């Protein structure tokens, strides 16, 4: 390179290789002068100017010839030509080429959990559990308000006197309504008067009755009356709340409450030759004379029984009326009987011209009433009846029916009458002559209820 004027380093010249060369006084000292100048100058765009300071972000990029060690400014492309290597200056001095990427650092430790958020609103209290046959328990007030319009008082006149009872309106049409009550309420009546909740009195007609189940149906010639709804007595459980509604001692619209005290109580009512055998619901709700025929209602306001009888302490006691032992006919039996009575009755216009009849199931046996041991002893079989067809021998002792123990012939009759005619039941007996125990499947027969 030729010697230049000592005027100083004040310009650059573009070389054929694309680099820009710094002019110096000589090859020997020029590198030093160039380096010193670069250390105090900032390259901006394509020119340079003097500066007193360099910030940590300012830098100058150059190319060093691998043979001559001459430094030239890097091309604007930032890529040094072949035979040179890149060099960068900033306040910290010359920087080497960018090294390879370091290994990824270890994952930092998981931070501590943040503070707990504010407490949410209080939850809604859970509903009470299902109780017995009810899914939603109503208050006694609600039940009374719903049922009282469909409960009536029944007054009868007989040849020897008068009596009162209760009933429930369970069917109605545009011109007439039907009332469910007990047979013993209307038995012997020469006149029947039905009093509605609002005090209206209507003449009643007996549509039909069933002595065996102590049930009856009365019709009044007034339609569109409020009707009660039936529940399912097979789902009743001990301890569930119930309400009794009726007209005890002639006091219409009386409401009492209690619980179901027991199930499947064998109860008999009526005199000799007209006995009713009831597989009863027992309740401690107050039931008194005059409540007969009125409804026993569950917690949903559905009729589950027809109040029919009470226990007393006997004629030797001065106590009378309710002592917490009331009995009701299960509504499932009452529904079947009342529907059969209405279906078979003949009603012409507003008059009942032929009473309806109902049926009862038959096991097809006669019991030995002198037998004093446990169970019900079979004295005779009805030819072609269910027991004979099933193969049960005479003198067998019935010990259970569908798994329910049978203590005596009364319980046997009550258990059988809790079924519909034609039902299939399992009867377990002790065979005669110490023949052991055996269970027979019996299809029950059918007969008109009021036949002996």
CATH superfamily annotation of the domain at 235-331: Trypsin-like serine proteases
What is the CATH architecture term of the domain at 235-331? Answer: Beta Barrel
| Helix-and-strand structural type | mainly beta
Task: Identify the CATH class of the domain at 235-331.
Answer: Mainly Beta
Key features of this structure:
mainly beta; Pdz3 Domain; six-stranded antiparallel sheet; six-stranded antiparallel barrel; elongated; disordered N terminus
Provide structural commentary.
The protein is mostly beta strands. Among the domains are: 12-95, no CATH class; 235-331, Trypsin-like serine proteases (Thrombin, subunit H, Beta Barrel), CATH 2.40.10.10; 359-448, PDZ domain (Pdz3 Domain, Roll), CATH 2.30.42.10. Helix content is 12%, strand content 37%. It is built from six helices and 30 strands. It has helices at residues 27-39, 140-147, 183-186, 331-344, 386-390, 409-417; strands at residues 12-14, 20-22, 41-44, 47-50, 59-65, 71-73, 84-90, 93-95, 151-157, 162-172, 177-181, 191-195, 201-210, 215-220, 241-246, 254-269, 276-283, 295-297, 303-310, 326-330, 346-348, 351-354, 359-362, 365-367, 376-381, 397-401, 404-405, 424-430, 437-443, 445-448. It has a six-stranded antiparallel beta sheet, covered by helices on one side. A hairpin with a 5-residue loop joins β18 and β19 (303-310).
């Amino acid at each position: 390179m030729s010697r230049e004027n000592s005027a100083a380093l004040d310009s650059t010249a573009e070389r054929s290789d694309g680099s820009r060369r710094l002019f110096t006084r000589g090859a020997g000292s020029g590198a030093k002068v160039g380096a010193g100048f670069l250390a105090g100058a900032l390259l901006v765009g394509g020119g340079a100017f003097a500066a007193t300071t360099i910030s940590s972000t300012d830098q100058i990029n150059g190319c060093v010839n691998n043979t001559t060690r001459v430094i030239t400014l890097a091309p604007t492309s930032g890529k040094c030509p072949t035979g040179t290597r890149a060099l960068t200056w900033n306040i910290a001095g010359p920087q080497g080429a960018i090294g390879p990427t370091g290994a990824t650092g270890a994952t930092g430790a998981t931070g501590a959990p943040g503070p707990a958020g504010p407490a949410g609103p209080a939850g809604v209290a859970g509903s009470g559990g299902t109780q017995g046959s009810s899914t939603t328990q109503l208050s006694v007030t609600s039940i009374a308000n719903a049922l009282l319009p469909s409960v009536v008082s029944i007054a009868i006149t007989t040849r020897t006197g008068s009596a009162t009872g209760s009933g429930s309106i369970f069917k109605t049409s545009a011109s007439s309504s039907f009332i469910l009550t007990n047979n013993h309420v209307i038995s012997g009546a020469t006149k029947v008067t039905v009093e509605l909740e609002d005090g209206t009195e209507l003449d009643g007609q007996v549509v039909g009755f069933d002595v065996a189940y102590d049930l009856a149906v009365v019709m009044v010639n007034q339609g569109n009356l409020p009707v009660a709804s039936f529940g399912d007595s097979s789902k009743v459980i001990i301890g569930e709340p119930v309400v009794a509604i009726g007209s005890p001692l002639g006091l219409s619209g009386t409401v009492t409450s209690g619980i179901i005290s027991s199930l499947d109580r064998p109860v008999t009512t009526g005199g000799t030759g007209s006995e009713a055998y009831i597989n009863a619901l027992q309740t401690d709700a107050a039931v008194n004379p005059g409540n007969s025929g009125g409804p026993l209602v569950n917690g949903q306001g559905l009729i589950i029984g027809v109040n029919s009888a009470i226990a007393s302490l006997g004629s030797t006691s001065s106590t009378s009326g309710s002592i917490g032992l009331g009995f009701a006919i299960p509504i499932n039996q009452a529904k079947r009987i009342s529907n059969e009575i209405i279906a078979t009755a003949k009603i012409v216009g507003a008059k009942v011209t032929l009473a309806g009849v109902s049926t009862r199931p038959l096991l097809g046996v006669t019991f030995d009433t002198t037998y004093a041991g446990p169970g019900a002893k079979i004295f005779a079989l009805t030819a072609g009846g269910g027991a004979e067809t099933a193969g049960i021998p005479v003198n067998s002792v019935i010990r259970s029916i569908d798994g329910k123990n049978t203590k005596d012939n009364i319980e046997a009759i009550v258990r059988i009458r809790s079924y519909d005619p034609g039902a299939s039941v399992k009867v377990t007996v002790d065979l005669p002559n110490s023949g052991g125990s055996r269970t027979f499947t019996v299809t029950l027969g059918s007969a008109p209820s009021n036949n002996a």
